[in-house]
Every structure is written in structure tokens, then in C-alpha cells.
Batch of 3 targets.
Target 1
Amino acid sequence: MNLVRGQKFKLADVGLDARLTVGLRVAGPALEYDLSVFGLIDGKLEDDLYFVFFNNKQSPEAAIAMRTRSGDEQLFDLDVSKLPAR
């Protein structure tokens, strides 16, 4: 699945398995980009521990984890079964 900037979707709506990898790639000038993932509840970040980026590489239960950067692409592993029920 290819997404465009700002696009949102619910995991349950697209029938994804409990584990998946999301790759983010930046196409632009030769600059350094910091990519991140937010674990949201009802559209809000309720705990900074679910802001996964270079300085916080995984959520508390490792449901969201950042892999080592490779060139212009950043990989994030998601394990939906480990996310809190809320």
C-alpha cells in the first residue's frame, strides 16, 4: 500500500495482519530528515512514550519500534497485538 502525505487509515479497515513494517522515504534535496511515528488514541498523543523517533526508538511495550536508518528511508515495525486495548 502506498500512502500520500497526511493520509490516515485504520489498521482494521485495511485488513492488515498483527505485524507489519512501514517504510517512509523522503524525496527531496540532499538534507537530513528525521522521520517519526505517533501512536494516537482518538487522534491525540496521550503519552510521549508513543512518540517514536531517533531519541525514543520504541514504545513501552515495543508495539512500535524504529529500525536503523538506511539512506533516505526509515523503517518502523508495528505489532498491533502488543498495543494497549484503548
Target 2
Amino acid sequence: RIGDLLMTLPALAELRAAFPAATVDLVVGSWNEPLAGLLNIVDSVQTLDAPWLARGHPNGGYLELVRRARSWRADRYDLALNFEGDIRSNLLVALSGAPRRAGFGIKGGAAFLTERGSYDRGAHVAVNAGRLVDTVLARPSTSVAPGDQPILDPSESARRVADELLEHAREPLIGVHASGGRAIKQWDPARFADAARQLVAARGGTVVLTGSREDRAIVDEVKSHITGDTPVIDLTGATDLMALAAVLERLSLFITGDTGPMHLAAAVGTPIVAIFGPSDPVNYGPWMTPTRARVVRVDIWCSPCNQIRRPPTRCVGHMPDCLVGVNVEAVVAAANGLLDARR
């Protein structure tokens, strides 16, 4: 998904640095094609919508995947890397005909690989992606840490769109992405609204609401809880990924759950307050230094369970306890800390 691609960018940059003259082709889901098109560390981008990742995007099914993978043999690749680690994508890598095939065997399919990266379940996705590249380069894994510089640069045309959308907004710009993407990761929209309202009441500025067209109902609920004297700009469904990246770049602060836009904000260097429930921030938190990102969560006996695709039965149909325990005061305190540091 979007976050997975963004968390892999440091490893792709490491791969490019090691092979500056190589041809590097990147295969992503169609939803990531515009984002991948920004990368100057790859030579071309191909799209392939795997059914287990597509989530609403049309795909040709498993036979089409096999056909596409076999077609890669014509390109005579020397090396194929699979950062995902699923047994099905490991099979596709094997069908490509590349003599060297590197990936993770954590979800099966290790026999399809010639080189297996050491996957640390207690490490961030970006760290494990870097470890896989280190395996290919036959060197010891280095201790990878996020830097202070953005790793993604929005296009100038996207920045012009962002300038138009935010033309009448007064700073600070408090971004809010209320949709959790999945019900199991959904914090209360009323709490998002309360946090944003308190920040603007204390500091002035404008609330900037982001989301896709599918997020309209959640965003409307947030708006219904924001008082009429709080300036709000609603960008729900108004931006593509490129323009969203440029909008996020302009924000003073971004409040979100564990979402793709969270990782996009991290990639462009925007300070983030990330609200985590069932997913583990050690694995999936914003890839930023602690001075620019704060994770807000609570410790209860079962969290973080990381059971996102198949949540426990007791957590289905309502906000899970690990998110119920995250209060507005903690989010506002984290936001004020980041805004004070930025100022």
C-alpha cells in the first residue's frame, strides 16, 4: 500500500547508491503509480494490482499475475527483490526468471528465493527493507535511523495546486486526517474535531481536513463537531496523491492515525502527531526523528496486537479499547510540543 512504498524509499535509495549505473525497475500497485513516478532513484515504474493488496482496485486475478511475472523473463533481470514478503509475491519473483531472487521468508515461499533477508519483527519496516538490501550487497546490516531531511520532493505543479487550495488559510495550518482507513484503526471523529478546535482556539490558524472521496462521511462528522468560528478548509476528495503531498508539505502540523497519508507527511518532513491503536509504532510509526513526530497510544494487555487485516472478534463493530483509551488531552499536548519546537 501507500505507506509500504514510502517506508521502502530509504532502502531503494541505498540500492541505487550501490548500483548507480544499473537499470532499476519498480513494480507497484496502480494506486501508487503517481507517487512512484516522482522517484529519481528508479528508471521505470510498472503497475501490478495483486488481489490481496488491491482493496477496491480492479485486477485481472491470479492468472494475470502469473502471465505478467513470466513476461518479465524477456527483460533478463539479473536481480529481483521482493520487499513485501508474501508467499504469493515470492512466487512471482521466482517466475520472473531472475537468477538472483532476494526477499523475506516470513510468510512462506522461502524456497522461491536464492537470498533471504533476516527479518526482525521488532524493527521498523524501513529498517527491514534496508537489511534486505544489505543482504544483496553481502555486507553486515547497518543501524538505520531516519534523517532530518525529507525523502520525497513534490513536483512544482503539485505545489502550485497546494498554493491555490490553501491561498486563504492563515497559519498555523493544523492538518487532520480523521479516516483510519480500516475500522479497527478508527479513532473517534469527534475527538479529532475537539483536538483541532482546541489547538486553533489557543494558537489561531486554520484546520485543514484531508481525505479521499470515500472518507466523506467521516470528515463530515468531524466538521459537525467543530464550532462555526473555527476556520476550516475541507480538501476531502479534492487532491490526488501528488497534490496531497504538496498540501502536507505546507502544514504546520498533521494529526492522523496509522495511515498512508501519515507516511506521506513524514516523507515530505511535516511534523506529525500519530494516533496508534492496534498497530505497533515500532514497526509502522512515522519514519522521522522524535523531534518531528510524536506517537500517542495507550498500553493495555493486548496491544499492540498488529491484527489489522483480521482483528479480534471482540474488537469488531466498535472502536477498540486501545483507541478508546487515547484521550484528546494527550493528543493536544503532543501537538503543542511539536508546534513549540517548530516555532
Target 3
Amino acid sequence: MEPGSLNRLVSIRSPAAGRDSAGQPLTTYTEVYKVWANIRFQTGAEAIKADSPTSVSKVSIRIRRGPIVNAG
């Protein structure tokens, strides 16, 4: 992998349980790490389902194995 191809800073998130102001269960995501990545869009399709546009994309995300920058 060429060093210049890691040109997007992405965050890796983990689900965290919590409660909203009314006391209802709420799933949020907290950022765990930030890493530089290469993102490639491989295929995509758009359609109209139930009178609303829908799109699906197949994406490849590559990161370098090694030290990860802690988000905290």
C-alpha cells in the first residue's frame, strides 16, 4: 500500500448504552480510535422503494496495521 493512499481520517466507534432525559434506553456510539484509511467505492445502486429513494454502496476501507491514535 502506498503511503499517500491513506488520505481519509476515519473514526472507529463502539456502542455505548445510556438513557435519554425521559429515562428511556438509548444506544449511542463513542469514538474509540482515529485512523488514516483508504476508501474505495466499488459498486453502487439506486432504487425507489415505498415511494422513497434508496441507495446501496459497496465500499472497501483499508487501514494500515500498526499504532492507532487514541481519540481520547
